[in-house]
Structures are given as C-alpha cells and as structure tokens.
C-alpha cells in the first residue's frame, strides 16, 4: 500500500502544472511573434513588439530593453498591449508588467515605439536584458514564483547573413538529404 501511495504522489508531483516552465520573451516585427527580422524605415515611426512565449503560463514579467544607441535612433516610449496589463517603470531602464491573470501560450505584452532619422546598419541587434538587481529576464509564473526566461533578439535590417533562428521552416527532401552527405 505504501508503494502505491508513493507512486501516486510522485505521478501527481511530476504532472503538476505548478512546476515552472521556462518560456521565452522576444522582440518581433509583428504582434504574434512570428518574425524577429525587423525592417527599420527611415523618417517614419515604427513599432517593435514584445511577445511572451509561455507554455506553462505567466502572470507578469520584468526586463529592460537594450536597443542600439546613436544620434539617429530614437526610442519614443512604449505601451501595454491591452487594458488588462499594468506597467510600472520604463522599458529603457526597468519595466515590470502584471498581466492581470495567468496567460499561457504566445501573447503580445508590450509595444515599443521608435523613430530613425538615418539608416540603421544591417544586422543591428536589439534584445531584452535583466532589470537592475535581477539575474536575467524574469517571468512570474501562475503561482507567483519568479523564473528566468530565455530572452530573444530582434534583428534590425536583417540582410540574409544574420536572420533569426527558425525552429521549423519549409524545405525540400533534397535539401534535407544534402545535410547528411
């Protein structure tokens, strides 16, 4: 009987959704988080979208935006993706977000607004980094525990030599076979 109870307890423990599942947060050209190749227009405002990819669910996050600096690239502020999200702080110094509930999957959390007065060099990188006094980009899971997430990069003006890593993409059988020759 003890073995049975112990087995049931172990199965329940490992099947529990309360285990923290590391997700990812990244900067994207679209609010669905499909492409991190971001084209920067000259003399026109543009947005970069922060998308949280959380398979286990999240209630909030904390990060700092690390953008290229220079006299021709300007950060014009940011805004939450919807009225349920509460933001405290600023994206370029220390931003904390509370999502208003436990949300899982891929979801747009924040929009960053920019303006460039000259061409941004190809393959410039932009990322989310740790807020002050944190060890990394932080997500708050559905039981309110802080867990680190994998920060993704946005690539500004990708030119084919620095495209985003894509987990799956269309290919032909010939291309697949050529990988093993």
Order of helices and strands: HEEEEEEEEEEEH
Extract low-pLDDT stretches. Answer: 4-19
Share of residues in strands:
over 45%
**How confident is the prediction overall: mean pLDDT?**
85
Helix content: 10-25%
**What sort of overall outline do the alpha carbons produce when their principal axes are compared?**
globular
Structure description:
- With 181 residues, this protein is mainly beta.
- Helices cover 11% and strands 46% of the residues.
- The protein contains two helices and eleven strands.
- Strands 1, 2, 3, 4, 5, 6, 7, 8, 9, 10 and 11 form an eleven-stranded mixed sheet that branches.
- The protein is globular.
- About 9% of the residues have low confidence.
């Amino acid at each position: 009987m003890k073995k049975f109870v112990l087995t049931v307890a172990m199965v329940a423990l490992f099947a529990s959704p309360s285990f923290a599942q590391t997700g990812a947060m990244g900067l994207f050209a679209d609010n669905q988080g499909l492409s991190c190749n971001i084209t920067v227009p000259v003399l026109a405002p543009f947005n970069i979208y922060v998308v949280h990819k959380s398979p286990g669910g999240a209630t909030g996050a904390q990060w700092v935006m690390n953008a290229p600096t220079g006299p021709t690239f300007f950060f014009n502020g940011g805004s939450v993706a919807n009225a349920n999200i509460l933001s405290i702080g600023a994206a370029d110094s220390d931003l904390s977000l509370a999502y208003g509930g436990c949300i899982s999957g891929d979801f747009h959390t924040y929009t960053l607004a920019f303006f460039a007065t000259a061409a941004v060099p190809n393959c410039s990188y932009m990322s989310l980094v740790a807020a002050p006094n944190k060890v990394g980009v932080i997500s708050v899971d559905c039981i309110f525990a802080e867990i680190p997430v994998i920060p993704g990069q946005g690539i500004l003006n990708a030119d084919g030599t620095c495209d985003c890593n894509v987990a799956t993409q269309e290919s032909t059988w010939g291309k697949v076979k050529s990988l093993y020759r």
